[in-house]
C-alpha cells in the first residue's frame, strides 16, 4: 500500500492563496453590490418619507423591492465576508466592523478597498 504524497509548504501556500483570491473576489462583488443598493435604499426612503410626504405623492409599490434586494444581498455579503475572514484569519473586531460596513452608507466601499489592498499585499495577489 502506498501513501499519498504529502503536499509541500509551497503547494499549501499556493492552495491557500487561490482560496483567498476566490473569496476576495466574491467579497468585493457583494460589498459593492450591498453598498450600491444601500445608497439606492436611502434615496428611496428619502423620497418615500420626505418628498412624497411633503407633496402628498403616492409611493409606487415597486419601491418595496429595493429594500428586499438590499436585505438579501446583505445576507449574502455576510456569508462571503465570513468566508473571507476565516480564510485570512481576521481577528473578531475586524470581522465585526467589516460585517457592519454593509449597514452604513459608503462604509462598504471604504472597507472593501481597505481590506482588498491589505489582503492583496499580504497574499501577494
Automatic annotation (TrEMBL):
It is found in: Cell membrane. It comes from Tsukamurella paurometabola (strain ATCC 8368 / DSM 20162 / CCUG 35730 / CIP 100753 / JCM 10117 / KCTC 9821 / NBRC 16120 / NCIMB 702349 / NCTC 13040) (Corynebacterium paurometabolum). It is a multi-pass membrane protein. GO terms for cellular component: plasma membrane. Pfam families: DUF3817. It comes from the Bacteria. The chain crosses the membrane at residues 29-50, 62-80, 92-111. PANTHER family: MEMBRANE PROTEIN, MEMBRANE PROTEIN-RELATED. Its main location: membrane. InterPro entries: DUF3817_TM. Keywords: Cell membrane, Membrane, Transmembrane, Transmembrane helix. Residues 24-114 form the DUF3817 domain. This is DUF3817 domain-containing protein.
Amino acid at each position: 500500500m502506498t501513501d499519498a504524497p504529502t503536499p509541500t509548504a509551497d503547494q499549501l501556500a499556493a492552495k491557500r492563496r487561490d482560496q483567498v483570491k476566490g473569496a476576495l473576489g466574491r467579497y468585493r462583488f457583494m460589498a459593492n453590490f450591498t453598498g450600491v443598493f444601500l445608497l439606492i435604499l436611502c434615496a428611496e426612503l428619502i423620497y418615500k418619507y420626505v418628498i412624497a410626504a411633503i407633496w402628498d405623492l403616492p409611493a409606487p409599490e415597486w419601491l418595496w423591492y429595493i429594500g428586499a434586494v438590499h436585505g438579501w444581498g446583505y445576507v449574502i455579503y455576510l456569508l462571503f465576508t465570513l468566508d473571507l475572514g476565516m480564510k485570512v484569519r481576521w481577528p473578531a473586531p475586524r470581522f465585526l466592523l467589516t460585517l457592519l460596513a454593509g449597514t452604513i452608507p459608503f462604509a462598504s466601499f471604504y472597507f472593501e478597498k481597505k481590506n482588498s489592498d491589505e489582503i492583496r499585499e499580504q497574499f501577494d495577489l
